[in-house]
From TrEMBL:
Belongs to the iron/ascorbate-dependent oxidoreductase family. GO terms for biological process: coumarin biosynthetic process. Keywords: Iron, Metal-binding, Oxidoreductase, Vitamin C. Signal peptide: none annotated. InterPro entries: DIOX_N, IPNS-like_FE2OG_OXY, IPNS-like_sf, Oxoglu/Fe-dep_dioxygenase_dom, Plant_2OG-oxidoreductases. Residues 212-313 form the Fe2OG dioxygenase domain. SUPFAM superfamilies: Clavaminate synthase-like. The keyword Metal-binding applies. Pfam families: 2OG-FeII_Oxy (PF03171), DIOX_N (PF14226). GO terms for molecular function: dioxygenase activity; L-ascorbic acid binding; metal ion binding. The gene is LOC107415053. This is Feruloyl CoA ortho-hydroxylase F6H1-3.
Length: 362
């Protein structure tokens, strides 16, 4: 039975009750939200500078929406590369992933989070049979001073067989189908982005370096009693090569505008997929393509879900500026780093904006 709010806000021992309910028992913030909680627990109160001040939002600005119905059409490749250089983010429509596949992935996500806490908690850090399957809340509760208002399930893809054996049945098929059906458009985007860096052929070893491993996350941002005091996800850039993100129709994802530092909303567009450049591609392109800071606000009236696929180098890959992108004599601004070290560095700290990439700076 869910404890009452009196138990959670119990003045004598709020933290232990809170962490038992949210973290240990696996109710997460979804469980907290569903108790009807009326005030945000202190653990979620973010410092002022981390809250999104609506005056910093420039509503008329927007990231590009690129139509891929004729991917070889005039201007499409330029639009993709320009968006990756100028914004680090764009949306794609008519991308070849059937609408039903996108709907099924969202349905799979809702089904997983709709499970009782004790079912979801079978995949927590302490209980999961594999490190490749992890249910949790916030980003890195041990490293964070203030928690984020989000629950997640993170699935590192090894093989279809492993996924069949280990991923929760509630969401497995819908997510695997989405991963499989989106592979072609990911390859197409990388091909276009690589051509601008003078990489004319993506052979097997290049393909492994760019997209040799993949992780799919499902995120749940429940209704929040004081959304203005906290965040759904704090400022960060992704450590991926590319991230392809499916969001529902609620909205709340904001992207930093590189030109004036303001925040731009990424509006939900029916049937679209949001694409963003991650740190690995920023490093491999020697800074040409931008891995841009983004964040998610909490919502006071609606539950939101999202489904990012992080297309990554493999953990044992060494990443650095690609030789082709330096062929014209450009000086490298990043060194060669082991990708798993880079990712470890990301997870060791709380979300801190663009801080991660400094790890690879020369
Ligand atoms: C992420 C992320 C955005 C969203 O998971 O890295 O930025 O809209 N998610 O959920
Ligand atoms: Ni992100």
């Amino acid at each position: 039975m869910a404890p009452t709010m009196a138990a959670i806000n119990n003045a004598t021992n709020p933290v232990s009750d809170f962490s038992d309910f949210v973290l240990t028992k696996g109710h997460g913030v979804k469980g907290l939200s569903e108790t009807g909680i009326e005030t945000l627990p202190n653990q979620y109160i973010q410092p002022l500078e981390e809250r999104l001040c609506m005056t910093k939002i420039v509503p008329e600005n927007a990231i590009p929406i690129i139509d891929l119905s004729d991917p070889n059409g005039t201007g499409v490749a330029d639009a993709i590369c320009n968006a990756a250089e100028r914004w680090g983010f764009f949306q794609i429509v008519n991308h070849g992933v059937p609408l039903q596949v996108l709907e099924n992935a969202k349905e799979a996500t809702r089904r997983f989070f709709g499970l009782p806490a004790q079912e979801k908690n079978k995949y927590s850090k302490d209980n999961s049979p594999s490190n490749n399957v992890r249910y949790g809340t916030s980003f890195s509760p041990q490293a964070e001073k203030a928690l984020e208002w989000k629950d997640y399930l993170s699935l590192f893809y090894v093989s279809h067989d492993e996924a069949s054996a280990l991923w929760p049945a509630a969401c497995r098929d819908g997510l695997l189908e989405y991963m499989r059906k989106s592979e072609a458009v990911v390859k197409q985007l990388l091909k276009v982005l690589m051509e601008k860096l003078n990489v004319t052929e993506i052979d097997k070893s290049k393909e492994d370096l760019l997209m040799g491993s993949r992780r799919i996350n499902i995120n749940y941002y429940p209704i929040c009693p004081n959304p203005e005091l906290t965040v759904g996800v704090g400022r960060h850039s992704d450590v991926s090569t590319l991230t392809i993100l499916l969001q529902d129709d609620i909205g709340g994802l904001y992207v930093r505008d590189l030109q004036d530092n303001s925040w731009i909303h990424v509006p939900p567009v029916k049937g679209s997929i949001v694409i963003n450049v991650g740190d690995a591609l920023q490093i491999m392109s020697n800074g040409r393509y931008k891995s841009v800071e983004h964040r998610v606000v909490a919502n006071g009236s609606k539950n939101r879900i999202s489904v990012p696929i992080f297309v990554n180098p493999r953990p044992h890959d060494i990443i650095g500026p690609l030789p082709e992108s330096l062929a014209s004599g450009e000086q490298p601004i990043y060194k060669q780093v082991l990708y798993s070290d880079y990712v470890k560095h990301f997870f060791r700290k709380a979300h801190d904006g663009k801080g991660t990439v400094d790890y690879a700076k020369i």
